[in-house]
């Protein structure tokens, strides 16, 4: 390309739209430590205690309660900041953007504490594991929502490296945990076949 176009070689990629990239020994590692620190600073949570879980076990968020409402603008701005960090959790918490209450803000602050505790985590892509693609799915039948719909979680690996993942609300109301798992497995198979 250098013969046909005027260009400069800037070396290996090190940083791209908030993602820190390290390349060595045939592996590529990515993480978002700097971006996570910016989010924590913007939300005044830089000095908060960290957490190892993103959501308190057994948490049941609802839209209709007797709780006090919180600042809608602040809630929405935190949702926007967190979109690239944990889209699965933000998908759940963004359902309450119209009228956020104290329970919803408490859940967002738990996510921020989790981000602080895991900000140095990342994903490493290497050659181990061969060229086999494996997919896994799970459902959240135990998570209660007012709509009765559960969530499906999907992850695909190429060798030992994750290449695709998603979390989405199930389109059908499951009547049992077995139904919920079947819906998750069907969604995963569809994604595997349709790519």
UniProtKB/TrEMBL annotation:
Any Pfam family: RVT_2
Q: Which residues form the Reverse transcriptase Ty1/copia-type domain?
A: 1-56
- Where does the source fall among the domains of life? Eukaryota
Q: What InterPro entries does the entry give?
A: RVT_2
Q: What is this protein called?
A: Reverse transcriptase Ty1/copia-type domain-containing protein
Q: Whose protein is this, by species?
A: Centaurea solstitialis
């Amino acid at each position: 390309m250098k013969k046909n176009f005027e260009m400069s070689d800037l070396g290996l990629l090190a940083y791209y739209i908030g993602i820190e990239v390290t390349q060595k020994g045939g592996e590529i590692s990515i993480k978002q430590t700097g971006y996570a620190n910016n989010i924590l600073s913007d939300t005044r949570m830089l000095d908060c205690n960290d957490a190892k879980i993103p959501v308190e076990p057994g948490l049941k968020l609802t839209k209709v309660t007797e709780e006090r409402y919180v600042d809608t603008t602040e809630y929405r701005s935190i949702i926007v900041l967190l979109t690239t960090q944990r889209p699965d959790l933000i998908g759940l918490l963004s359902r309450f953007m119209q009228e956020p209450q104290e329970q919803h803000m408490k859940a967002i602050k738990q996510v921020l504490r989790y981000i602080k505790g895991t900000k140095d985590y990342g994903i490493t892509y290497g050659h181990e594991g061969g060229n086999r693609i494996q997919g896994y799915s799970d459902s959240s039948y135990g998570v209660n929502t007012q709509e009765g719909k559960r969530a499906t979680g999907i992850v695909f690996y190429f060798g030992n490296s994750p290449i695709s993942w998603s979390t989405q609300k199930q389109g059908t109301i499951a009547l049992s945990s077995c139904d919920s798992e079947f819906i998750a497995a069907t969604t995963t198979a569809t994604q595997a076949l349709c790519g």
